Amino acid sequence: MVYITEWDKFVEQSIELFRADPDSTRYVMKYRHCDGKLVLKVTDNRQCLKYKTDQAQEAKKMEKLNNMFFALMARGPDVDLSEVTGKEQMDAQPTKKGRGRKQ
Amino acid sequence: MFYLSVSILLFIVLSFWFPSTRPKQRPLSFLHQNHYISTMVLLQLDPFLNELTSMFERSTEKGSVWVTLKRSSLKSKVQRNKLATAGEAIEYRCLIRATDGKKTISTSVGPKDHQRFQASYATILKAHMTALKKRERKDKKKPSEADKREGGSKRQKKS
């Protein structure tokens, strides 16, 4: 199993994998505090996509992916994801401003 | 500026809210600890979040926490076939399972309550994923050197 190195690719492929077989695809997050590592995995028992990181920044991206999967799984695979991501971006903007980009 | 203060306030309120609700669950999980080892317990949303929080707290020294999301109808194959032949729609929910390798807990969210849950879930993750590296304000200063230093001071492989 090879880890996918680009986040966007991982997101795109994992959503694709889920939509191809919603009933047998699962999304797993593993967090290891003592090593400061985070591993994400999406698999349908035939294909396995993995992504690992140790960056706090990536955890924020993961939150977005979490929300996408919550929506996909709770509301169904046909849910409009742009709605989910759009909302997220609106939520994220104020914090970005707060971080002092202007300074 | 207004948004910032609102979001900070919300975070403070949430972070106070979670620890304050936890002690209620503690005695219960302690009593049934042996029970948890062999079986998976389907919990309500708030007990699940409380238990997840203590899982994160228990695994700071060693160990990992796994959280799995899966789409599920929470019904057996037989039940599903029955519904299918009767021409009824199968209701799917999002099943959430968490384990630290010793005990497993689970809960499920439907279309109506997943948004509330995912917000609380994100707050818990944010509060406990503190071992991840913060990116330095590198902007123009050499980022490669900082990375090398980080890599050089590797943590012990075995604990």
UniProtKB/TrEMBL annotation, chain A:
Region Disordered: which residues? 81-103
Q: Which family does it belong to?
A: Belongs to the SRP9 family.
Keyword line: Cytoplasm, Ribonucleoprotein, RNA-binding, Signal recognition particle
* Heme keyword on record: no
The record's annotation in Pfam families points to:
SRP9-21
GO biological process terms, semicolon-separated: negative regulation of translational elongation; SRP-dependent cotranslational protein targeting to membrane
* InterPro entries to which the protein is assigned, alphabetical: Signal_recog_particle_SRP9/14 (IPR009018), SRP9 (IPR008832), SRP9-like (IPR039914), SRP9_dom (IPR039432)
Naturally occurring in which organism (per UniProt): Psophocarpus tetragonolobus (Winged bean)
Function recorded in the entry: Component of the signal recognition particle (SRP) complex, a ribonucleoprotein complex that mediates the cotranslational targeting of secretory and membrane proteins to the endoplasmic reticulum (ER). SRP9 together with SRP14 and the Alu portion of the SRP RNA, constitutes the elongation arrest domain of SRP. The complex of SRP9 and SRP14 is required for SRP RNA binding.
* GO MF, one annotated term: 7S RNA binding
This protein is called Signal recognition particle 9 kDa protein
Report the superkingdom from the record: Eukaryota
- Any one GO cellular component localisation term in the record: cytosol
Ranges for domain SRP9:
5-67
Where found? Answer: Cytoplasm
Automatic annotation (TrEMBL), chain B:
A GO BP entry is: SRP-dependent cotranslational protein targeting to membrane
Q: Where is this region: Disordered?
A: 132-159
Q: Where in the cell is it found?
A: Cytoplasm
Source domain of life is Eukaryota
An example Gene Ontology CC term for this record: signal recognition particle, endoplasmic reticulum targeting
Per the UniProt entry, what species is this protein from, by scientific name?
Psophocarpus tetragonolobus
Bias regions of kind Basic residues — which residues?
132-141
Family the entry assigns: Belongs to the SRP14 family.
Pfam families (UniProt xref) = SRP14
Output this protein's name.
Signal recognition particle 14 kDa protein
What functional role does this protein have? Component of the signal recognition particle (SRP) complex, a ribonucleoprotein complex that mediates the cotranslational targeting of secretory and membrane proteins to the endoplasmic reticulum (ER). SRP9 together with SRP14 and the Alu portion of the SRP RNA, constitutes the elongation arrest domain of SRP. The complex of SRP9 and SRP14 is required for SRP RNA binding.
What are the Basic and acidic residues biased-composition ranges? 142-153
Keywords assigned: Cytoplasm, Ribonucleoprotein, RNA-binding, Signal, Signal recognition particle
Q: Which Gene3D superfamilies match?
A: Signal recognition particle alu RNA binding heterodimer, srp9/1
- Provide the GO MF annotations for this entry: 7S RNA binding; endoplasmic reticulum signal peptide binding
Q: Which residues form the signal peptide?
A: 1-23
State the oligomer form and interacting partners.
Answer: Heterodimer with SRP9; binds RNA as heterodimer. Component of a signal recognition particle (SRP) complex that consists of a 7SL RNA molecule of 300 nucleotides and six protein subunits: SRP72, SRP68, SRP54, SRP19, SRP14 and SRP9.
